[in-house]
Write a structure and sequence with these properties.
6 helices; single chain; Purple Acid Phosphatase, chain A, domain 2; 5-stranded mixed β-sheet; alpha/beta; 6-stranded mixed β-sheet; binds fe (ii) ion
């Protein structure tokens, strides 16, 4: 049997955000990276699924690359609503120009990662331009056999709260994404961040996972329909591919 291929996912480190309850984002990301480094087997690659930088500054991206780079494995990044596309693109050497959406596909070996940028400059919520969905379709059609993870910042799932959905990916955008994914059976999962909370659902029959934040976690009040952020155990996800089977596992770190 083929060996397991491990893609680690780090999300929402928000480097540069002010400390909360005495906890700094840099300390949290360092703890997450240290925990990944202590795993018995090193991940094969890392995905950083957005909101790397609180203010979209070059120095915040340099710090992200320095900290995550300690793992010594390839880093693949996508933007969140706090990121600046052009600054992030330059820092990570992502193909494309300036502030164009960051959409790409990368062959990791047994696993393929296809990224679609869900950010809308100046907005918290996510969405996709029609040409981005066409690019996703083309990227998926280009390698229909290889098991694939589709990654985006805003996870295409309902949160159970209208106000939370309104700052995530609205139902129309989830349907648009589902229409593309439905035609590509090699898509094993769709992964995101943004919610600062582990959440799972399904889209077009595929699992959807929102990874925990590497900094603050969300505490929803479903009765009051409010969400607050608080300093708590940061974490990461591991997407483990063995043959055709993908298993997603989450680990949290007690600071
Ligand atoms: Fe975030
Ligand atoms: Fe976000």
């Amino acid at each position: 049997m083929s060996r397991a291929f491990v893609l680690a996912q780090i999300s929402d480190p928000h480097l540069g955000e002010r400390p909360r309850d005495g906890v700094k984002p840099k300390r949290c990301l360092r703890a997450v990276v240290d925990a990944l480094g202590r795993l018995p087997n090193r991940p094969d690659a890392v995905l950083v699924s957005g909101d790397l930088a609180e203010h979209g500054k070059a120095k915040e991206y340099r710090l992200a690359i320095e900290l995550v780079g300690r793992l010594g494995v390839p880093i693949h990044a996508l933007p969140g609503n706090h990121d600046d596309r052009a600054t992030m693109r330059a820092a990570f050497g992502i193909p494309g120009s300036g502030d164009a959406p960051i959409d790409y596909a990368v062959d990791l070996g047994p696993l393929r990662l296809v990224v679609i940028d869900s950010t809308i400059p100046g907005e918290i919520r996510g969405g996709f331009e029609p040409e981005q969905l066409a690019r996703l379709e083309a990227n998926l059609a280009a390698d229909p056999e290889r098991p694939t993870i589709v990654a985006t910042h805003h996870p295409p799932l309902p949160t159970g709260m209208a106000d939370w959905d309104a700052v995530n990916l609205p139902p129309s955008e989830r349907r648009a994404l589902a229409d593309v994914v439905a035609g590509h059976p090699q898509v094993k999962a769709i992964v995101g961040g943004h919610l600062h909370r582990v959440a799972a659902s399904a889209l077009a029959g595929r699992p959807v996972l929102a990874a925990p934040s590497a900094y603050l976690q969300a505490r929803p009040d479903f009765a009051a329909e409010t969400v607050s952020l608080y300093a708590s155990a940061p974490g990461f996800a591991l997407h483990v591919l063995r043959g055709e089977d993908l298993s997603t596992q989450v680990e949290v770190i007690h600071l």
